[in-house]
Design goal:
The complex is a heterodimer of chains A (522) and B (70).
Chain A (H helix, E strand, L loop, with lengths): L26 H10 L3 H48 L17 E8 L4 E4 L22 E6 L10 E7 L8 E9 L1 H51 L19 H49 L5 H29 L8 E2 H13 L7 E5 L5 E2 L3 H18 L4 E8 L2 E8 L6 H6 L19 H7 L6 E6 L2 E5 L15 E8 L1 E2 L11 E2 L5
Helix pairs in contact in A: 2-3, 4-5, 6-7, 7-9
Chain B lengths: L2 H13 L11 E2 H8 L3 H10 L4 E4 L8 E4 L1
Antiparallel strand pairs in B: 1-3, 2-3
Classes of the chains: A alpha+beta (522), B alpha+beta (70).
């Protein structure tokens, strides 16, 4: 028998951990945050001034280095001349046989290896250079050049000293010849140069900061103008979404491109808002009738006691009304749905599919087709093109007369789809307004329908597309259209024509990217 | 008063001689629709249900319907 294992003790619950302390922030991060909080204009100016400071300092340093080099070279020439002359006059005891005259040399000394002055131009002086600063391992002719005395602050006794090794050693024997020239003029010139460079750089920094501020203000002024205008639009200023940023048309820089993009965004928003408002208006307008009809039928049914058969009949009427209501809602939703332009729809293939389905609704020879644009591609998606053709066919069946003829062709870079019927057409007054919403002919008022069909077709037109209503030589054109659209080519029968720009480039699915809409070719 | 009552009241008013109505040859549904600001299908639904005080002459298609006193 296995002894029972003792039940494990419950693990002590972990003590609540203290709230994590914020990670230490480095000074660099703090500085970066502080700088990032500054207005963009100040950051631009600060960056500009900083760059100018680096440039001016570099340029000043270079100029100082070149001037100092040139001045030192002059002094070194004097030192070389004097040293070479004096070196030949130093005797073995360190005495100079003839003093140096006619040179700019300020002083000279002869030292032994221990640093004792054996001879000098001015007796009693301390060595111009301590011998400890001179190399112990040297050969005759070795030279060491040192500046004694500071440039800043100004030192009145500043000299440039050259030590020339004489090649002998031992106490009392000449080991070094020291020659010094006065640095007063050289230092004065350098101090003046530093002063001039400092003043010039300071002035340049002030000017560059001022100019940078002006440039930054000028560059950012359109941004501020855009921001103010955008705020007005957002706050519902008069004009609302019809307002646009004032973008100069003759400029193409980053800011104007931003403004143009913002305006394009406003265009898209305005279209979306208009579509939404139109949907609400349409829905309210069009749903009112069937809903009133429904309510009226219900009220009429409830006015008195009804038999079961009468109630059935009333319900059947209500079902018809509800079906019409549902269809109307579909039409309204279709008109409100945004359509995105595709990369190329096979127009004839789409039309053929619609006509195949539609033929089942039309008896015998009442629907005739002649599609003559195989492979023609247009930008509206198949759903949009199908809806367009169905609406035109519905109109022809409802208001025209058989036979209804559907033809297609390509002409001048456009796809031309025409639906003609043998009916009497429209009265001239109606033809002028037929593409407006809810416009219906007198003969159509007693029938089902919303008066939205042609307006939907017009609303589905892509850029460069046209909707034409033609009869007996009269043409009404709707839509953006394009200058190269082909002329009408049909009989005097009532004909509704949709003209769409052809899409060029490889067909979709070939991996070569979307096609481009063909421009006018006429 | 429901909608049907309102329609018949309007018919009665428009058929009564006076500034608004009194047409001898009856009242068309289009005139009624214009006077009431209501769509034709709704009015025709009410007219189809009928009223003892009035006679409704229906028609097909775009032909107008006419209402007269019974």
């Amino acid at each position: 028998m296995t002894p029972a294992k003792p039940a494990p003790e419950p693990a002590p619950s972990p003590a609540p951990s203290p709230a994590p302390s914020p990670a230490p922030v480095s000074r660099r991060t703090r500085l970066r945050r502080r700088v990032s909080r500054l207005p963009l204009r100040r950051r631009l100016v600060a960056g500009f001034v900083l760059v100018m400071l680096v440039l001016l300092t570099s340029a000043g340093g270079f100029v100082y280095w070149r001037v100092e080099y040139a001045l030192d070279r002059g002094l070194d020439d004097d030192l070389s001349t004097a040293a070479s002359t004096l070196a030949t006059r130093v005797g073995e005891d360190g005495e100079v046989s003839a003093p140096l005259t006619g040179t700019p040399v300020a002083a000279w000394q002869v030292l032994d290896a221990d640093g004792q002055v054996l001879d000098s131009s001015t007796p009693g002086e301390v060595p111009l250079l301590p011998v400890t600063e001179l190399p112990t391992d040297h050969a005759a002719g070795d030279t060491v050049t040192e500046d004694v005395g500071s440039l800043l602050p100004a030192d009145a006794g500043a000299v440039r000293v050259r030590a020339v090794a004489l090649g002998t050693s031992g106490t009392g024997r000449p080991a070094w010849l020291l020659v010094a020239v006065d640095r007063a003029h050289r230092d004065e010139a350098l101090r003046e140069l530093v002063l001039q460079l400092s003043l010039t750089s300071l002035g340049a920094l002030v000017v560059s900061g001022f100019v940078g501020d002006l440039l930054a203000r000028a560059a950012l002024r359109p941004v501020e103008r855009y921001r103010t205008r955008a705020l007005q639009i957002a706050d519902g200023a008069k004009g609302g979404l019809a307002l646009r940023l004032d973008v100069p048309p003759d400029r193409d820089d980053e800011i104007t491109r931003l403004g143009a993009t913002f305006n394009h965004l406003l265009d898209v928003l305005a279209v979306a808002l208009e579509r939404e408002q139109r949907f609400v208006r349409d829905a309210g307008h069009e749903l009112r009738t069937p809903l009133t009809l429904l309510r009226t039928r219900i009220q009429l049914t409830l006015r008195r006691e009804r038999s079961t058969e009468e109630l059935r009949a009333a319900l059947r009427e209500l079902e018809v009304d509800v079906d019409a209501l549902a269809e109307l809602a579909s039409v309204l939703l279709a008109g409100a749905a945004p359509e995105s332009l595709g990369s190329g729809t096979d127009a004839d293939a789409t039309a053929r599919a619609v006509l195949r389905d539609y033929a089942a609704l039309v008896p015998g020879d009442d629907l005739r087709t002649d599609l003559g644009a195989p492979g023609a591609r247009v930008s509206p998606p198949p759903s949009s093109l199908s809806r367009t053709l169905v609406n035109l066919l519905d109109n022809a069946r409802a208001h025209g007369a058989a036979p209804v003829t559907v033809t297609s062709r390509t002409d001048a870079g456009h796809y031309v789809l025409a639906v003609a019927d043998a009916g009497p057409g429209m009265p001239p007054a109606l033809l002028a307004t037929a593409t407006e919403r809810f416009v219906r002919g007198d003969e159509a008022r007693g029938r089902a329908g919303s008066g939205l069909g042609l307006s939907l077709v017009a609303g589905l037109l892509p850029p460069g597309g046209e909707l034409r209503l033609c009869q007996r030589g009269e043409h009404r054109v709707e839509g953006p259209g394009s200058a190269g659209a082909p002329p009408c080519a049909h009989t005097d029968a009532f004909t509704v024509t949709v003209v769409l720009p052809l899409v060029t480039g490889p067909p979709p699915g070939t991996g070569s990217g979307p096609g481009a809409t063909a421009g006018p070719t006429a | 008063m429901d909608f049907a009552d309102a329609v018949w009241a309007a018919v009665d008013r428009l058929l009564t001689p006076g500034p608004e109505g009194g047409a001898d040859d009856g009242l068309t549904d289009a005139r009624l629709a214009e006077a009431m600001g209501q769509p034709l299908p709704v009015l025709r639904a009410v007219l189809t249900a009928g009223d003892d005080r009035f006679e409704v002459v229906t028609a097909k298609g775009k032909q107008p319907w006419v209402v007269r006193r019974a």
